[in-house]
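A reminder from the course coordinator: this example appears on the midterm review sheet, so study it carefully.

Given structure:
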C-alpha cells in the first residue's frame, strides 16, 4: 500500500487537500490546511456556546479529537518515514508537554486559588483530586472512578470535568509516539516498508474494535463509555487513518464544495439534534465525526470561509479557550449563588474566556512552544540547549517559566491533602454541648443564637468512623471479604474492645452512620461494637426486592455466616428505607429486610431496627445538599421538607418487629422532623453531611436517645 511512495508525499498531499482533480478547481490552496484550524476553532466555539447557554454536548469535542488524531499522528508518522529518524521518544514527548502543559497548569492553578479563596461549596476533596488527575492527564479515569455523569453547568458540577477530553488526547499522543517509535525501529531493518503500510493495519484494527466497543458499552455503563480512552480511541484513530488515505480519494471540485458544506452543517447542528452526553461515543457520534471528515475531504467556499482571518484566530486560541471557559463558568455560578448560570453571567464568562484565551495564547502558549526542528538519528541538541541558556535571554526566560510551571504543578498536587486535613480537623474537634446541643435541644436544652457548625462544605467530604478507618467495605472491594478480617483482631472493634458484650452493626452506609454514637455508648456502657457494613448494601438473607447488586448478595452471605457463628448480644441496623429504585420515595420495609429478622429470630439474636432518616432528593434524582442550602439561604423553610414527604404515617417496621421476641423498632422520625418539618439544623448543629446521611456531630448528640432504646435489649 505504501511502498510506491513515501509518507512524506502522502502527508504533503493531505496538507494540500489532495491534488487538483479538475481543471475547474477554483479555490487556490496553500501548503497548509488553514481551513482545518478554522474548523477546530468553530468546533470549540460551539462547545463553549452549548456549555454556557444550552447545557448539552455539542459534538465539538468529538471533532476536536478527530482533528487531534489527524494532525498529531500524521506528524509523528511523517517523521518515522524519514531514513534518518531517531528512535529517542524524549523529543516528541518534551515538545508535546511544552505545547500543552503550561496553559493547563495556569488554568488549574488560577482555578484552585479562586476556589480556595472565595468558593467554599467547591472546596471538595473530589474536585482537588480531579485537578491533580487533570495535571497528569488521567482525568477521564478519575471521573469514571467517581461515577460522575457528564452534567450541564451548575453550582454543583466539577469545574474540571471538561478536562476528560484533554486526558484522552494526551493518552492518545503517548500511543502515537510509541507507535511511531516502533515503526522507526522496524524500518531500520525493513526500510522497504513505509510508515503508511505499517501503521494502517494497526490503526484500522484498533479503530474498529474501539468503535464497536463504544456501541456495546453504551448499554453496559454509559458513564464509563463516555470517558474511556478505549471507547474514544476510534474518533482519534479515524482522524489518523484519514490523514494517511484521504489524498488517495479522487473527488471533483464541485463535489468537494458540496461535501464541505454538508459536513460543516453536520458539525454545527449536532447539539440541536442530540445530547452527546447520553450516547457518545457510540453510534450517534458518527454524525459530527463524519461531518468533520467531509470537511476534511471537501473544499470550495466553505474552506475559504473557514480560512478567514477571524476563523484562524479562533482556531489559534481554541485550546486555551476550551481550558478557561468551563472553570470560569462553574466558579462564578457557585460564587454568585446561582444554581444554573444566568444569560448575563454566561455572556460575561464568554467574554472573559476569550480575553484570557488570547492572553494565554500570546504570553504562555507560543513563548513556551518548542521552536527547533526535531533532531535526527545520532544528533544531539543538549550542548546547543545549554549554550542558549548561557547566551540567550529568551531561552533563560523560558527556563524560568518552566520552573514556575513545575512549581505550580507541585503545589497543585498538595491541594487534596490540604482539604483532607480540614476534614480531619473537623472530625477531631468537639462541639461545646452548651452552645451546640444538637438533638438535645429537642429534650429542652437551650440553644443560643450562634452560627451552626460544623462547616457544611467540609461536612460533604466527611464519613463516619468505620468508613474513615477502613472498616467498611466499599464499591470495588472484594464482596467475599469482611473488612474487619483484613486487620488485627481489635482494629475494627469500637466502643470497649475488651468487653465480652458484643454489638454488631450491619447494613449499608445508612447503618454505618450510627457508628459515632455507638462508639461513644460502648465506651460509656462497656460493650464492643463490630461493623459488618458495605456501601449501598442493606443486610438480608434473601434478596426479594430485585434492586440490590450481586456483590451485595455475596457480601451478605458472609455477614449471615458470621452472625450465626458469633451470636452477638445485639444486632443493630436500619428497619426502613425508600425504594427509589422502584420510584417510591416514602419509607417502607423492603421484603429483603424481613428475611434478616426471620434469621435473627430463629437464632435467638436480639435486634434493634432504626427507622431511616429523611432523604432529600432533587427533582432530577440527585441528592440535595441541605446543610449547604441553609448556609447560603439562611431559611429553614426553603431548605426543608415536610415530614409526610418522606415518612409514612406510622413506622412501617413497628408491626413486623413487635411480634418478635427481643426485637425493637425505633421510630427516629421525631429526631429529624420536629413539628412535622424535616430541617437541616437542629440545636445549632448541621444535621446532614449530604442529602441523606447524618453528620457525625448530630449523630453524637443522639447518643442519649439511642441508649434509652438499646438498654431495653442490652444489659451491659
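Designed residues:
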Amino acid at each position: 500500500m505504501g511502498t510506491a511512495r513515501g509518507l512524506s508525499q502522502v502527508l504533503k498531499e493531505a496538507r494540500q487537500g489532495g491534488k487538483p482533480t479538475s481543471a475547474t478547481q477554483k479555490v487556490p490552496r496553500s501548503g497548509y490546511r488553514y481551513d482545518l484550524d478554522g474548523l477546530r476553532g468553530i468546533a470549540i466555539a460551539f462547545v463553549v456556546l452549548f456549555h454556557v447557554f444550552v447545557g448539552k454536548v455539542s459534538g465539538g469535542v468529538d471533532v476536536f479529537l478527530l482533528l487531534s488524531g489527524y494532525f498529531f499522528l500524521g506528524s509523528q508518522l511523517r517523521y518515522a518515514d524519514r531514513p534518518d529518524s531517531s528512535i529517542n521518544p524524549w523529543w516528541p514527548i518534551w515538545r508535546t508537554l511544552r505545547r500543552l502543559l503550561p496553559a493547563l497548569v495556569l488554568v488549574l492553578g488560577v482555578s484552585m486559588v479562586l476556589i480556595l479563596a472565595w468558593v467554599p461549596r467547591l472546596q471538595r476533596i473530589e474536585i482537588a483530586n480531579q485537578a491533580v488527575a487533570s495535571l497528569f492527564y488521567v482525568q477521564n479515569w478519575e471521573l469514571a472512578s467517581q461515577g460522575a455523569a457528564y452534567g450541564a453547568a451548575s453550582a454543583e458540577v466539577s469545574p474540571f470535568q471538561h478536562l476528560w477530553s484533554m486526558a484522552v488526547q494526551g493518552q492518545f499522543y503517548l500511543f502515537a509516539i510509541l507507535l511511531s517509535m516502533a515503526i522507526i525501529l522496524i524500518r531500520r531493518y525493513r526500510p522497504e516498508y513505509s510508515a503508511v503500510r505499517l501503521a494502517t493495519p494497526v490503526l484500522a484494527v484498533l479503530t474498529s474494535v474501539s468503535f464497536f466497543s463504544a456501541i456495546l458499552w453504551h448499554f453496559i455503563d454509559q458513564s464509563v463509555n463516555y470517558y474511556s480512552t478505549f471507547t474514544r480511541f476510534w474518533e482519534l484513530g479515524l482522524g489518523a487513518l484519514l490523514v494517511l488515505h484521504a489524498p488517495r480519494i479522487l473527488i471533483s471540485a464541485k463535489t468537494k464544495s458540496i461535501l464541505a458544506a454538508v459536513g460543516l452543517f453536520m458539525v454545527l447542528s449536532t447539539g440541536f439534534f442530540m445530547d452527546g452526553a447520553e450516547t457518545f461515543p457510540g453510534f450517534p457520534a458518527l454524525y459530527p465525526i463524519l461531518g468533520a471528515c467531509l470537511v476534511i475531504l471537501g473544499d470550495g467556499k466553505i474552506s475559504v470561509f473557514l480560512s478567514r482571518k477571524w476563523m484562524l484566530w479562533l482556531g489559534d486560541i481554541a485550546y486555551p479557550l476550551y481550558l478557561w471557559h468551563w472553570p470560569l463558568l462553574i466558579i462564578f455560578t457557585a460564587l454568585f449563588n446561582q444554581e444554573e448560570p444566568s444569560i448575563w453571567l454566561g455572556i460575561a464568562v464568554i467574554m472573559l474566556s476569550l480575553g484570557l484565551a488570547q492572553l494565554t495564547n500570546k504570553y504562555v502558549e507560543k513563548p513556551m512552544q518548542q521552536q527547533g526542528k526535531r533532531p535526527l538519528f545520532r544528533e544531539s541538541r543538549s550542548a546547543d540547549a545549554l549554550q542558549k541558556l548561557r547566551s540567550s535571554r529568551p531561552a533563560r526566560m523560558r527556563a524560568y517559566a518552566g520552573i514556575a510551571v513545575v512549581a505550580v504543578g507541585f503545589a497543585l498536587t498538595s491541594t487534596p491533602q490540604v482539604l483532607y486535613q480540614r476534614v480531619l480537623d473537623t472530625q477531631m474537634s468537639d462541639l461545646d454541648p452548651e452552645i451546640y446541643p444538637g438533638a438535645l435541644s429537642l429534650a429542652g436544652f437551650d440553644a443560643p443564637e450562634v452560627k451552626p457548625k460544623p462547616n457544611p462544605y467540609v461536612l460533604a467530604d466527611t464519613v463516619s468512623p468505620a468508613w474513615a478507618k477502613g472498616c467498611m467495605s466499599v464499591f470495588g472491594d472484594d464482596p467475599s471479604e469482611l473488612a474487619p478480617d483484613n486487620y488485627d483482631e481489635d482494629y475494627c472493634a469500637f466502643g470497649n474492645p475488651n468487653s465480652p458484650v458484643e454489638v454488631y452493626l450491619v447494613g449499608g452506609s445508612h447503618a454505618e452512620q450510627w457508628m459515632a454514637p455507638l462508639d461513644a455508648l460502648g465506651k460509656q456502657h462497656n460493650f464492643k461494637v463490630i461493623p459488618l457494613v458495605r456501601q449501598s448494601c442493606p443486610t438480608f438473607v434473601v434478596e426479594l426486592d430485585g434492586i440490590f447488586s450481586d456483590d451485595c448478595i455475596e457480601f451478605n452471605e458472609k455477614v449471615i455466616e458470621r452472625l450465626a457463628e458469633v451470636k452477638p448480644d445485639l444486632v443493630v441496623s436500619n428497619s426502613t428505607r425508600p425504594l427509589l429504585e422502584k420510584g417510591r420515595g416514602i419509607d417502607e420495609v423492603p421484603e429483603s429486610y424481613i428475611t434478616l429478622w426471620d434469621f435473627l429470630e430463629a437464632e435467638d439474636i436480639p435486634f434493634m431496627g432504626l427507622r431511616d432518616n429523611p432523604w432529600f432528593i432533587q427533582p432530577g434524582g440527585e441528592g440535595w445538599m441541605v446543610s449547604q442550602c441553609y448556609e447560603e439561604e439562611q431559611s429553614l423553610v426553603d431548605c426543608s421538607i415536610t415530614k409526610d414527604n418522606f415518612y409514612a404515617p406510622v413506622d412501617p417496621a413497628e408491626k413486623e418487629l413487635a411480634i418478635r421476641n427481643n426485637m425493637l423498632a425505633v421510630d427516629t422520625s421525631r429526631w429529624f422532623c420536629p413539628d412535622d418539618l424535616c430541617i437541616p439544623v437542629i440545636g445549632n448543629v448541621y444535621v446532614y453531611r449530604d442529602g441523606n446521611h447524618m453528620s457525625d456531630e448530630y449523630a453524637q448528640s443522639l447518643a442519649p436517645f439511642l441508649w434509652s432504646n438499646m438498654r431495653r435489649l442490652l444489659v451491659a
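The first strand starts at residue 494 and ends at 495. The chain has two domains: 63-245+308-376+383-416, 434-710.
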